């Protein structure tokens, strides 16, 4: 039989292929973002454009700490902080550079900005107007879409970039909400953040309760201001969005999101009488948990990030509207563009390769999920009632109640990890590891901020001021101050200031003069620590007491937060554990200058200074403290440092005289307390 006949027989015998079943239509995916911005506006612009080309569908802008706290790069308080955790935007010229070539009228932009949110929104709007000179400014505003975080209450509780007292901060927020509802209807003027509450130690119940209490405080303030009619108030409720954290406890976190949906629907219907179900919808974006990312075996962070992403995407009825994922190496330092691309690809694989978006909610009818949601809802309602009975969220901030509760919850979590009751893979269990090619070159595994960024930003401000109309600037600032003294909506004067060439620092300084400043309670003094933590802490207590007797008194530890970094969780936990270990602790909160820390160390006659810096400014600020102590005749006081510090920087700090450097891999607080005693003994020649 010929070859051709064999082929004919095979073809005839082949089965008819089955019809390919038609797949269901997919839902539209959530907005995909990466949180980015560093060094300069030009560098950040290049990163944004690159990310958009890779399929990112929205921008999420990280601003540096001077911009967030209302200082120009020329301010002494900005030293070491310019361009470190985000992009510096001290004036309109830098805003233009930041979005050069990115059409703002067709973009969805999220800006992580709070105390200075009104100012950044004004510059964003003016930059958009300049991109569209053929349109009336009002038409441009109608087309802008995005979000300003603008949740100042959580800044008092966790992140620390507040500026003004609560009453005045709430006024700025309500002015922005009223303005955007009327002028920028597609803008979310506030993104109420439970994210940072979880980072500060909140349980799911506290996260639900405190963020919803914040929403109640904001909506009540908008009503009281009288700038929005009853007819438009539903639109206000409909533009409130939330920014939520998702941890690795998958079932609990997903149930938390369903609880949020249920509670928000009840609050908006019962308290505010909103009848349109669309306006009562719980609209939220997510940055999944950075607190749980580890420096040890950092490759494990990838699967953590995936699990956390699933918690906010699998349940259709409680699915996030926007998701941004951290990178695997954020516990080591600043992620590189490739690391951010990897996190973006995690989202894209889930949205486009899986069948997730083809189905209705896959958890409907689950008895397990329903029971967990009910438990969380009931617990959150009880805590909301407790806070409202105190007078609401503002009163609970000013009294220190919420901050103290968060510090205590965080201390309990740390104690569980140290005891091994809460397992962190690669940290307190399964620590044996092969060497990782991802971290073979630790300094190369992260991106370093441009060391020239600060000088560049200072030069930019000086050049900007040299070419502007000073009379127009003076007039704009006088109008801003006058409006701040009455009940005029401040958005209009702020827009005029942006157009006149006012700087970020000048806008904030003008309002500081009228409103004053605020220092939030630390929550440390009344926090419940781990006073009965067992033999290890008992041994350290004995060591602290014995060393104190040898030196003629109780050991005193100063915990200091130099610079503008407001992430105080680590410092608070060190302070609480040091108190439990028998130290007398001096902790004055965030945002201190090196000079203030030195003065406190001398005045309190401390035995050790502990500095906590998470913003990357350690190489500028720590040497300033060391030099200040020497100049004050206190150079013999040992200094220890904790933070996200690359290995090479840690070695350099020790060469400069730092006694010990602690990074996220050093999770055992009691062990650290023992190390501090050893440092004190060595400094005093006791060993």
TrEMBL record:
Residues 8-22 have a biased composition (Low complexity). The keyword Transcription does not apply. Residues 554-683 form the B12-binding domain. The keyword Hydrolase does not apply. InterPro entries: Acid_CoA_mut_C (IPR006159), Cbl-dep_enz_cat (IPR016176), Cobalamin-bd (IPR006158), Cobalamin-bd_sf (IPR036724), MeMalonylCoA_mutase_a/b_cat (IPR006099), MMCoA_mutase_a_cat (IPR006098). NCBIfam families: acid_CoA_mut_C, acid_CoA_mut_N. This is (2R)-ethylmalonyl-CoA mutase.
């Amino acid at each position: 039989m010929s070859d051709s006949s064999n082929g004919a027989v095979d073809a005839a015998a082949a089965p008819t292929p089955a019809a390919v079943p038609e797949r269901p239509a997919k839902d539209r995916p959530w907005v995909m973002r990466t949180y980015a911005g560093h060094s300069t506006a030009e560098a950040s612009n290049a990163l944004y454009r690159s990310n958009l080309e890779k399929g990112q569908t929205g921008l999420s802008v990280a601003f540096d700490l001077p911009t967030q706290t209302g200082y120009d790069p020329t301010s002494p308080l900005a030293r070491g902080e310019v361009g470190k955790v985000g992009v510096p935007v001290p004036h309109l010229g830098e805003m233009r550079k930041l979005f050069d070539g990115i059409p703002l009228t067709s973009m969805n932009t999220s800006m992580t900005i709070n105390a200075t949110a009104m100012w950044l929104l004004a510059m964003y709007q003016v930059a958009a107007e300049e991109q569209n000179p053929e349109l009336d400014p009002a038409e441009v505003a109608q087309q802008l879409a995005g979000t300003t975080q603008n949740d100042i209450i959580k800044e008092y509780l966790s992140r620390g970039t507040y500026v003004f007292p609560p009453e005045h901060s709430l006024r700025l927020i309500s002015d922005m909400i009223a303005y955007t509802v009327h002028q920028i209807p597609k803008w979310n003027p506030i993104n109420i953040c439970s994210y940072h509450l979880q980072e500060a130690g909140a349980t799911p119940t506290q996260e639900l309760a405190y963020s919803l209490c914040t929403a109640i405080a904001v909506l009540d303030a908008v009503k009281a201001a009288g700038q929005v009619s009853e007819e438009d108030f539903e639109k206000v409720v409909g533009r409130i969005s939330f920014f939520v954290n998702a941890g690795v406890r998958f079932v609990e976190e997903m149930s938390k999101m369903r609880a949020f949906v249920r509670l928000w629907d009840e609050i908006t219907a019962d308290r505010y009488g909103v009848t349109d179900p669309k306006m009562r919808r719980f609209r939220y974006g997510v940055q999944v948990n950075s607190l749980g990312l580890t420096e040890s075996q950092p490759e494990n962070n990838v699967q953590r990030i995936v699990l956390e992403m699933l918690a906010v995407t699998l349940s259709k009825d409680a699915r996030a509207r926007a998701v941004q994922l951290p990178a695997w190496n954020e516990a080591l330092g600043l992620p590189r563009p490739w690391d951010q691309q990897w996190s973006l690809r995690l989202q894209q694989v889930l949205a486009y390769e899986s069948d997730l978006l083809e189905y209705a909610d896959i958890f409907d009818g689950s008895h397990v999920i329903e029971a967990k949601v009910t438990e969380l809802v009931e617990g959150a309602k009880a805590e909301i009632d407790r806070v409202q009975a105190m007078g609401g969220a503002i009163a609970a901030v000013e009294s220190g109640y919420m901050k103290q509760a968060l510090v205590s919850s965080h201390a309990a979590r740390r104690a569980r990890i140290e005891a091994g009751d809460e397992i962190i893979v690669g940290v307190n269990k399964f620590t044996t590891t092969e060497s990782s090619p991802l971290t073979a070159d630790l300094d190369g595994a992260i991106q370093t901020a441009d060391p020239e960024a600060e000088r560049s930003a200072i030069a930019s401000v000086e050049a900007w001021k040299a070419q502007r109309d000073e009379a127009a600037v003076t007039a704009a600032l006088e109008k801003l101050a006058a409006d701040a003294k009455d009940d005029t909506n401040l958005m209009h004067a702020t827009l005029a200031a942006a157009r006149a060439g006012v700087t970020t620092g000048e806008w904030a300084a003008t309002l500081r003069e009228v409103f004053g400043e605020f220092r939030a309670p630390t929550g440390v003094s009344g926090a419940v620590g781990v006073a009965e933590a067992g033999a290890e802490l008992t041994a350290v207590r004995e060591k602290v007491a014995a060393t104190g007797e040898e030196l003629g008194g109780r050991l005193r530890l100063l915990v200091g937060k130099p610079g503008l970094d407001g992430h105080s969780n680590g410092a608070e936990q060190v302070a609480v554990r040091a108190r439990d270990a028998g130290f007398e602790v001096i902790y004055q909160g965030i945002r201190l200058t090196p000079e203030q820390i030195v003065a406190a160390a001398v005045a309190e006659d401390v035995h050790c200074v502990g500095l906590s810096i998470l913003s990357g400014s350690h190489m500028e600020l720590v040497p300033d403290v060391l030099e200040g102590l020497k100049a004050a005749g206190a150079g013999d006081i040992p200094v220890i440092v904790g933070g996200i510090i690359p290995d090479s920087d840690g070695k350099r700090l020790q060469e400069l005289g730092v006694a010990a450097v602690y990074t996220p891999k050093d999770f055992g607080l009691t062990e650290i307390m023992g190390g501090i005693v050893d440092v004190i003994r060595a400094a005093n020649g006791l060993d």
